[in-house]
Amino acid sequence: xxxxxxxxxxxxxxxxxxxxxxxxxxxRQYAGSEMSGEQVEQMKKRIxxxxxxKRNESRKMHTVRNxxxxxxxxxxxxxVLPNTSGSVAYAMGNLPVVGKLVExxxxxxxxxxxxxxxxxxxxxxxxxxESDTEQMTDTEVQVQENLKKTTAEINAEIEKITDQIxxxxxxxxxEEEGYQEVVVKHEVISTTDDYFTLKLMCYQAAGSGAEWxxxxxxxxxxGERLTLSDLFQSGADYITPISENIKEQMQQQMAxxxxxxxxxxxxxxxxxxxxxxxxxxxxxxxxDGHLVICFNEGDVAPMYMGCVQFxxxxxxxxxxxx
Length: 322
Description:
Distance between the termini: 32 Å
CATH topology of the largest domain: Heat Shock Protein 90
CATH architecture of the largest domain: 2-Layer Sandwich
Pfam families: DUF3298
Protein name: DUF3298 domain-containing protein
InterPro entries: DUF3298 (IPR021729), PdaC/RsiV-like_sf (IPR037126)
Number of helices: 5
Strand content: 15-25%
Organism: Roseburia hominis (strain DSM 16839 / JCM 17582 / NCIMB 14029 / A2-183)
Structural class: alpha+beta
Helix content: 25-40%
Keywords: Coiled coil, Membrane, Transmembrane, Transmembrane helix
């Protein structure tokens, strides 16, 4: 979760009758103080553009579907590097991993702190370990080739995101006055025999804070990047049941906790209400195989709620899952 967001941003809600009044104030704060920062808006817009551009490229690169093969589990390696110049890139070798196909390493560690401007940016890179193709089946060879394409695509997307963040940070710190903090880190949040998910967390603070998270899931049976539609039968409507379940979870959470608020079914500000997910909505599969839908700060709730997630019960999509 993002840190540094001031407590004053969270209005105390004594009961549900006050929600409509409070929501207008939240909307004003959200549209005003939280989202008026030019740096925050530019960074979010450019990161989203990079995400969309690379995702479109990934779809063009897909060539093989439904390949049935066994694949080893993969795991990430987290390395804390000493403070160094931002121009130095690190290619780490001899790192312990679980699994034999893919490993995650810290490719670059950008550190800066002058007391007013601070950056801690660790750029991950996924690599595919070479195997003796003569000892592999045709299917296994195809999976390895797909993995190379997929990891190259993910690495390019992450590098573009972090390069943009570093560039904007360096431009901003030319002004000696003021305060700015930027953090980029990564985590493997789910690794099974079938799927591998890397989470990239981007946090920026300039008076107030904002966080954006990105999820990269690889189907280890095919070696390809997993999309939301890949989880469901061809032609199935998965958007409606998932969206309706998320609304139910939002309502239930608000009923049980007055401190929680989502933009849902509110007549006062209908334009802010969550309607439905899209094919581009972030997701991952947890260690138990449950679908988890993810939203960034401000997407479906006031900024103080942070990045929120919803675990979709199996029965909601059981009839349409592959």
